[in-house]
Specification:
The structure is a single chain. The chain is α/β, with parallel strands linked by helices and about 210 residues long. It has one domain: 3-Layer(aba) Sandwich (Rossmann fold). It contains six helices and twelve strands. Helix 4 links the parallel strand 8 and strand 9. The longest helix is centred in the N-terminal third of the chain and has 19 residues. The chain starts with 5 loop residues before the first strand and ends with a helix. Bound molecules: uracil. The site of uracil (URA) has 10 residues, from helix 6. It catalyses: UMP + diphosphate = 5-phospho-alpha-D-ribose 1-diphosphate + uracil. Pathway: Pyrimidine metabolism; UMP biosynthesis via salvage pathway; UMP from uracil: step 1/1. This is Uracil phosphoribosyltransferase.
Length: about 210
């Protein structure tokens, strides 16, 4: 595992909220709210090194030179369906970002990702794409989504998740070494069904109440 391209958010409030999310008795309503809150922090971290340039402005009191974001514009790419649970929180922090969606399902036998939907802004080559999906498990969905984005012209991509398994991190880093990964926690391992352990179960089912 390459720790240079992996950022694990070590913050007491994030860890506290994540513990609540892991608990099996946490309600759908609370699960969704906690995911939104943690996603705000993840959005903060993934954008922490965006370039800025100083511009001259007038405050009500005086003039000053003050920074504005100067690099590529942002686009959030949600891997359906669980990625949508992170969208509101990420967009709270970067409300002007464009939003794309990538529909992938996991073949239950092979655990491979199969695409059924892809809709992104036409100018993705000029944007920093922040791919969101709460669970980086086998890495198949993330790898397929990022390959698809690159094939569509994206050149600058970051991946954000809530929980990652070491197997998923390694697979994603191997397939896309240029893509930085930001996560709230790195868990222990993947079980035979492709679930992250200790994990939190099926993130999509828990956020949408479809268990
Ligand atoms: N997807 C989930 O929702 N949970 C896991 O543990 C793995 C993949």
């Amino acid at each position: 595992m390459n720790n240079d391209s992996l950022r694990v958010i070590d913050h007491p409030l994030v860890q506290h909220k994540l513990t609540l999310m892991r608990m099996r008795e946490t309600t759908t309503e609370n699960f969704r709210r906690l995911l939104r809150e943690i996603s705000q922090v993840l959005a903060y971290e993934v954008t922490r090194d965006l370039p800025t340039t100083k511009v001259q402005i007038s405050t009500p009191l005086t003039q000053m030179s003050s920074p504005l974001i100067s690099g590529k514009k942002l686009c959030v790419a949600s891997i359906l369906r669980a990625g949508n649970g992170m969208l509101d929180g990420v967009l709270d922090f970067m409300p002007a970002a464009r939003v794309g969606h990538i529909g992938l399902y996991r073949d239950p036998d092979t655990l491979e990702a199969v695409e059924y939907y892809f809709k992104m802004p036409s100018d993705i080559a000029e944007r920093l794409i922040v791919v969101v999906d709460p669970m980086l498990a086998t890495g198949h969905s993330a790898i397929a989504a990022i390959s698809r984005l690159k094939a569509a012209g994206a050149t600058s991509i970051r991946f954000v998740c809530l929980l990652a398994a070491p197997e998923g991190v390694e697979a994603l880093q191997k397939a896309h070494p240029d893509v930085e990964i930001t996560t709230a926690a790195l868990d222990e391992y993947l079980n035979d069904h492709g679930y992250i352990v200790p994990g939190l179960g099926d993130a999509g089912d828990r956020m949408f109440g479809t268990r």
